[in-house]
Amino acid sequence: MIKRYLIVLLIFLMISCKSKEEKRFFDFDSIEYYSLNKEKEKELIENNRKDVNNSLFNKIIYSDFPTELTNTVFYKTINSDGFSKFELSQKDVEYLKNDVFKEKFSLKMFEMVKGCAPEYRDILIFKKKNEISGIAKICLFCGEFYFVSSKKEIQTENFGTEEEYNSLEKLFNTYKVKN
Questions:
Q1: 81-108 tens-digit pLDDT
Q2: CA 107 from centre of chain
Q3: Beta-strand (E) ranges in the chain?
Q4: Nearest partner of 35 among 79, 85, 72, 76, judged by Cα
Q5: 3-state class of 102 per DSSP?
Q6: Closest Cα partner for 121 from 59, 46, 35, 3?
Q7: Distance, CA of 76 to CA of 175 (rounded, Å)
């Protein structure tokens, strides 16, 4: 009798797990990667990160900005001399889609937080059919991130494991080396 219940429970669990739709943070088929130039980073450091003339750069790098996908000032700024732009290969896009930027269970809550103020030197612009569908700003040093997505109700609390950040850093470095 108990075996029957266990079998039924096991079948139910298997069906419920398989029917669960994978939710991604962004709906995308291409990704643009922006990296803060070394010269611009050096300039910001020399100006003690408080340069009034570069307040927009400071806002992009040090805060949760933009709040909307349609912020044209943000796009003009990251497409300026302060950032390098790279188009991610389809292989890398698929990897990020299937392994990184999706809702999943993780033990992130047990990982150590480095406790710094984030410096978003790496920015990903997600596109679907050439339309912007999301922004991910990443601080590889302290493990912080900031997302703006066209999708509503995304659950990002399990994003950002040490493994994901190491993977992103390795990926970003392959593009920086090409430049």
A1: 899 999 999 999 999 999 999 887 655 4
A2: 18
A3: 30-36, 83-87, 122-128, 131-139, 144-149
A4: 85
A5: strand
A6: 35
A7: 21
